[in-house]
Design a protein that fits this description.
The chain is 35% helix and 21% strand. By secondary structure, the chain is α+β, with helices and mostly antiparallel strands. Strands 2-3-1-4 form a four-stranded antiparallel beta sheet. The longest helix has 14 residues.
């Protein structure tokens, strides 16, 4: 079965009529200005762990920077403060412990 671009656009248009914030209007929640904060993360063993964490954290809305250190067992993130819970959840989904 092949789905055309027209069919995809139609489905998106239908969903946008059902979701009030889909159109990008000002009713969508705005994120606050990014701040710098550190989170202690246990379970990192190498640069690969650091990279995996920053890749995942970088996908959280509003994150502008991430630096992880397996030596100091912490990450430093620049993101809106209200995104700390989402960042913590993303790290935990990878199997690391955030204290």
């Amino acid at each position: 079965m092949r789905i055309t671009a027209t069919a995809t656009a139609t489905v998106i248009a239908i969903f946008c009529t059902l979701l009030p914030s889909c159109d990008g209007s000002s009713s969508a929640a705005k994120l606050s200005e990014p701040i710098s904060f550190k989170l202690p993360v246990k379970g990192m063993h190498c640069e690969g762990c650091e990279s995996a964490i920053c890749d995942k954290v970088g996908k959280v809305a509003g994150v502008t920077a991430c630096k992880a250190s397996h030596v100091s067992e912490e990450i430093e993130v620049i993101a809106p403060a209200e995104q700390k819970a989402a960042i913590t959840a993303a790290i935990k989904r990878l199997g690391y412990k955030v204290e």
